[in-house]
Design a protein that fits this description.
156 residues; 11 helices
Amino acid sequence: MAPATPPAPAPKAAPEPKAAPPKPAPAHETPKPAPAKPAPAKPAPATAPAKAPAAAAPPLDLRTLEERLKDTSAIGVLTKLSLKNQVDDLIAKFKTYHAGARPPTLTELKPSFDLLLMKVLSLLQDKDSALARDINASRDAIWGVLTDKQKLAEFS
């Protein structure tokens, strides 16, 4: 009976790797791992092009993003007013920075910008995911406008 105990672990080991079914057809084993690798690779490139078109238009058109935020039903009226006040406060800090005052440095302003953007994205993610995606894709463009004195003057 002692020899019967060692064979029991051996069958358990065979089903886990699932190597037993492919062993009869070794030629099929080699192609199976190869197609499995391209299959995950295909979704990743499909995701990347999907982000690229979404990122192409919104980053350049901040006025449209502003209008879409005003028009979305994903955020309530009072929350929109609160967000507008926070945006206005942040823009005022950037204007102070551009005026030459250095209590606000870009290093100090970046976390405030990121926090406000994350707040907006969290409010939108469930009910207006397209707008959240466009705003997220526009993150660098928005930061670029805020950090450029002339662009900020044109926008505000």
